Amino acid sequence: MRKYILFIYICISLTVVSAQKITFSDSATISLITCSPGEEVYAKFGHTAIRVKDPANGIDVVFNYGIFSFETNNFYYKFIKGETDYQLGVYETGFFLPEYAARNSMVWEQKLNLTPTEKRSLINALLTNYEPENRTYRYNFIFDNCSTRPRDKILAAINGYVKFKPEKEPNTFRQWIGVYVGTNTWLKLGIDVIFGMDADKLATQNESMFLPEQLMINFQNAEVYTFKGEKRNLVQKANVLVTKKEVKEPAVSCFENPMVVSISLLLIGILITLWDIKRKLHFKLFDSALLLITGFGGLIAFFLTVFSTHPLVRLNLNLLWLNPLNLVVAVLIWNRSLRKVVFLYEILNIVLLIAALTAFALSIQSFNLATFPIIVLLLMRSTHWFARAKRRIFHNNEFKLDRKFFHEK
Questions:
Q1: Alpha carbons 357 and 379: distance in angstroms, whole number
Q2: 150 and 66 share a domain?
């Protein structure tokens, strides 16, 4: 209910702001607002906004590039394809801060050290961007988001250039994201599975600012150099607007750790394989479930790799073991008449799984550690099925070739 009330407030505020001609005095202050991450998936990386406060005109508003709606037609499909549109919203700071206080996020304010000319330039750019024909933009998680847009507007308004303090140690895109989603979490596993080789490239200092907190840190230590040779700090003053309350972390179940689950599955698979060998059986139900899960995951990864415009999903070597064709094979293994087809597929699958383990070992792409037991499990079950099917197929001469085929005509 709280979110619906806030949404109504924002709609009212947007209507008021758009219905009047906003004017700011030279005494207005402009600040970069940074919000710490929340619990929701879309809030895991925090948020950035620009605050313009002008007591002379009784104005205190936030320019927020993070407005989107789940009610958009085909929202999730568009999100997966990378075709999500965000908007620039403008509403009173009094409506902005309570939302982050309610989700228990820290909110920092960095008052920017701008000249009157730079302030006017930035405010004009923001108001122009807020025009109905300009406020919507195609969201890009890495290169064009609610953090990079405020940065670009601020830097473009400065008469000179900004020099950032060099980073101590650069990270890859995958490493930066891991800082915010955790190391041993299902979200991190999912991200690692859909990200390809591009995610293992080192992010430049400018690219790392797609993360709101990294933008804040870089701004705090930045200096402005004017064309006249003058120098000043980019941030004049920093303070906290909303303080985070101490909350006791809930107990974490062992099954919330993907590594525990994947190792457990491997151990179960080993026991089933030993039982199959001893009893000369084949537990098709286990293999079918395993193939369905990995096939469905492979279908998502394949779709993102081929059709999505999201960055970092190209050249994904996870498709070596997350094979979308597993969805088909999960059904075919129940049909004895198609045993030869599955046999040939397993030959290809074993080659792909060995290639995946090789890529894992050589670090050609960074794989999530929790995928290693699953790859081993898939290889073990495929090899077991291959060996068992081979004996049956060749024992029954199902691959018997006509000798005339080799004779010259």
A1: 10
A2: yes
